[in-house]
């Protein structure tokens, strides 16, 4: 079981992720969306969406730092283990609370707004269960041991995570890891495998070009600046 969970399941989840992305890009390109329900309700969505997205971005950034940046690197720039633990504890908890709050509002919105609820599929419900489960389990695991520097996952889970990329997974590192971290990792891997088959797929089509594109310049149509507008053609006139 240890070999399966930490030596087979990660690659299976990654294979399902890649296969799902390729399949949807080839055969379901028009379905590669969030299936937005903003047309049914926008007030709660305008609150929940940014709260969730900022929270989940901070959560992902924290995982990338914690799992893939060795302790020796942070110590080399003057961040000792205690300072890193405090940043991880408070920063990670804040990010998790943001993401969970955003999901909570989104679920409340779907449950209380009839058109939005009718547009919710079984696939969406499954996605919410695993996404919320992964976040809550991670927070509970982190907050379950806050004494000293907490659980030292940088000497077990982090090296195991990095070893996956060398195709030589060090499964023995996961043997003594607390159960909560085990469950959190398994739920996280299942969530990764589900991404292409849910609305979460839209993370791979985020419009990053908007960060570098030139500004769109809008000019006034003040007649004193641009002159009178030309007469409309017959079929463009109001009432025609």
From TrEMBL:
Highest taxon of the source? Bacteria
Query: Which Gene3D superfamilies does the record match to this protein?
Result: Transmembrane di-heme cytochromes, Chain C (1.20.950.20)
What is one Gene Ontology biological process annotated in the Swiss-Prot or TrEMBL record?
anaerobic electron transport chain
Membrane topology value: Multi-pass membrane protein
Q: Where found, per UniProt?
A: Cell membrane
Domain NarG-like span(s) in chain numbering:
2-221
Instruction: Say where the protein is mainly found.
Output: membrane
Cofactor(s) annotated in UniProt: heme b; Mo-bis(molybdopterin guanine dinucleotide)
Q: Which residues cross the membrane?
A: 6-23, 44-69, 89-108, 128-144, 179-197
InterPro entries in UniProt: Heme-iron_electron_transfer (IPR051936), NarG-like_domain (IPR023234), NarG-like_sf (IPR036197), Nitrate_red_gam (IPR003816)
Instruction: List keywords of the entry alphabetically.
Output: Cell membrane, Electron transport, Heme, Iron, Membrane, Metal-binding, Nitrate assimilation, Oxidoreductase, Transmembrane, Transmembrane helix, Transport
**Family from the record:** In the N-terminal section; belongs to the nitrate reductase alpha subunit family.
Query: What is the annotated role of this protein in its UniProt record?
Result: Does not seem to have nitrate reductase activity.
Name used for this protein in its record: Nitrate reductase-like protein NarX
**Gene that this polypeptide is encoded by:** narI
């Amino acid at each position: 079981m240890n070999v399966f969970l930490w030596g087979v399941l990660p690659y299976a989840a990654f294979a399902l992720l890649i296969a799902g992305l390729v399949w949807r890009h080839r055969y379901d390109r028009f379905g590669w969306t969030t299936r937005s329900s903003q047309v049914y309700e926008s007030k709660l969505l305008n609150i929940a969406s940014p709260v969730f997205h900022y929270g989940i971005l901070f959560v992902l950034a924290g995982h990338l730092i914690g799992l893939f940046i060795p302790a020796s690197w942070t110590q080399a720039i003057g961040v000792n283990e205690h300072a890193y633990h405090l940043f991880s504890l408070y920063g990670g908890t804040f990010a998790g609370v943001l993401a969970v709050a955003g999901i909570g509002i989104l679920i409340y919105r779907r449950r209380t707004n009839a058109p939005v609820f009718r547009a919710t599929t079984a696939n969406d419900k499954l996605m919410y269960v695993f996404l919320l489960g992964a976040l809550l389990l991670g927070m509970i695991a982190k907050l379950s041991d806050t004494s000293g520097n907490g659980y030292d996952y940088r000497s077990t889970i982090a090296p195991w995570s990095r070893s996956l990329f060398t195709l030589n997974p060090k499964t023995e590192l996961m043997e003594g890891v607390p159960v909560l971290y085990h469950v959190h990792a398994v739920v996280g891997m299942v969530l990764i495998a589900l991404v292409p088959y849910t609305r979460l797929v839209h993370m791979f089509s985020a419009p990053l070009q908007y960060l570098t594109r030139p500004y769109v310049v809008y000019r006034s149509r003040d007649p004193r600046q641009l002159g009178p507008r030309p007469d409309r053609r017959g079929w463009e006139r109001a009432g025609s």
